[in-house]
Amino acid sequence: MTTEKMVYLISPVRQVTDEQAQVIAAHAEGLKNSGVRLFNPITDAPQQDETGFNIVMAELDFMHKTSIENGRVDILWNAGGAPSEGSRVDFGIAFALGLEFNLVTVFNEEEPSGPQLGLKVLRELEGGEPLDILWKVYAEKSIIKDSLEVVIDWDVEMTIDEQEWQRIRLGLALGCLAVNPDLKIKLGRLTGIDPEDKKSYVKVIREIEKVQMDSGSRSPRRLCDPE
């Protein structure tokens, strides 16, 4: 058992402004200086990975361990600019694992762009006005936990609520996979073109399919732990 507090940092990684990057880096540095065992995807995930699979597995492994150690996730959410796919997926993972949420700051909350289901859930978790979306997340988590297989439909764009929900739902499935190694995750209907030369969650799901097909089912340790 670790004695230090474990914290996973959810924040936009790509397409952030210099000012946002400075705020994120300052918060991460403050956590480290306080003795927290921090995972900051910007610096601690293997961002050079070509498909994104090893990035997601490293993040999933740390969040799973954090849930066991009663740690938390600190969130710096960007409501404007290009929506962060990673923030939505990470939120879903943390929710599925029952992690404590600490919403540190919201960039561009007064000038939002794109869907904001994730932010609405975070605000409701803080005690805001009840919304149907929080019930939907709890309900979907319960369904996935009791499932043998989850099929993830995917649209490469994320401009409407349903497309954001796909990211959150993938996170829920990944979080449940960390707890239940028998859960199968498969790619369903793909809308749009997944660029061959860019890491993507489409490639991550396909890699998970390949790993599970090659080895049956693997324990969370084998699947999530980076080699």
Question: Helices, strands, pairings?
Answer:
Elements: E1 6-10, H1 18-33, E2 37-39, H2 41-44, H3 53-68, E3 72-78, H4 85-96, E4 100-107, H5 117-125, H6 132-145, E5 149-155, H7 161-179, E6 184-191, H8 201-215, H9 220-224
Parallel strand pairs: 1-2, 1-3, 3-4, 5-6
Keywords:
227 residues, alpha/beta, 6 strands, four-stranded parallel β-sheet, 48% helix, two-stranded parallel sheet, 9 helices, globular
Could you tell me the radius of gyration in angstroms? Answer: 17 Å
- Uncertain segments are 217-221
Tally the helices: what do you get? 9
Q: Strands of the biggest beta sheet: in what spatial order?
A: 2-1-3-4
Largest sheet: 4 strands, parallel
How would you describe this protein?
The protein has 227 residues and is an alpha/beta fold. It has one domain. Helix content is 48%, strand content 17%. It contains nine helices and six strands. The strands form two sheets. It has a four-stranded parallel sheet, sandwiched between helices. Helix 1 links the parallel strand 1 and strand 2. Helix 3 packs across helix 7 (161-179), helix 4 crosses helix 7 (161-179) and helix 6 (132-145) runs parallel beside helix 7. It is globular. It starts with 5 loop residues before the first strand and ends with a helix. The model is unreliable at 217-221 (pLDDT under 50).
